[in-house]
Amino acid sequence: MEAQASSEVHAVSYGGGSKSEVLPVPHNIENLIRSVASDFGFQEVERLIKLGHCESRFNPICGEINHKDCTNTTNGSFDRGWFQISRKWHPEVTDECSVDIKCSTVESIRIINEKGFDEWACNSLI
């Protein structure tokens, strides 16, 4: 399922000091994440939305290691999709899943429940 851009947006703020950002999140993406989180009884929805935004700016084609609009990796990992799930550390998550907003949200929640938010570099920014 490919999410379509929405003209309606919700601002997300994360970071602190000079690196603080307030950027828009399309409502359809936010609503899909909220729906999946609710289905799984996941309580940290706001933090999950901020994580996805920080990691990929909600651009599922992020995945090229040096993509200028995505986070970079220097540890030999290849991060992909909505939540930039590492292919190196999470090979159980397929590339197809990583670019499907529902599947990648489910997998991100699973990873968070098993290992916490520290699996993502953006954890320190949100």
Question: What does this molecule look like?
Answer:
Helix 1 (27-39) packs across helix 4 (101-115). The chain has a two-stranded antiparallel sheet. The chain has a two-stranded antiparallel ribbon with strand order 3-4. It is globular. Helix content is 35%, strand content 13%. The chain contains four helices and four strands; from the N terminus they run ββααββαα. The model is unreliable at 1-20 and 64-69 (pLDDT under 50). The relative contact order is 0.17. The chain has helices at 27-39, 45-56, 95-98, 101-115; strands at 9-14, 21-26, 79-80, 85-86. It has a single domain, classed as Orthogonal Bundle (Lysozyme). A hairpin with a 6-residue loop joins strand 1 and strand 2 (21-26). It is α+β, with helices and mostly antiparallel strands.
Largest sheet: 2 strands, antiparallel
N- and C-termini, Cα separation: 27 Å
Strand content: 5-15%
Q: Report strand order across the widest sheet.
A: 1-2
By DSSP (H or I, 4+ residues per run), the number of helices equals: 4
* CATH classification, class level: Mainly Alpha
What is the CATH topology?
A: Lysozyme
Q: In the residues, how many domains can be counted?
A: 1
Low-pLDDT parts are: 1-20, 64-69
Number of strands: 4
Task: Give the name of the CATH architecture.
Answer: Orthogonal Bundle
| Residue-averaged pLDDT | 78
Given helix and strand content, the structural type is alpha+beta
Considering DSSP H and I runs of 4 or more, what fraction of the residues is helical? 25-40%
Q: Which series of helices and strands comes N to C?
A: EEHHEEHH
Principal-axes geometry comes out as: globular
CA radius of gyration is 13 Å
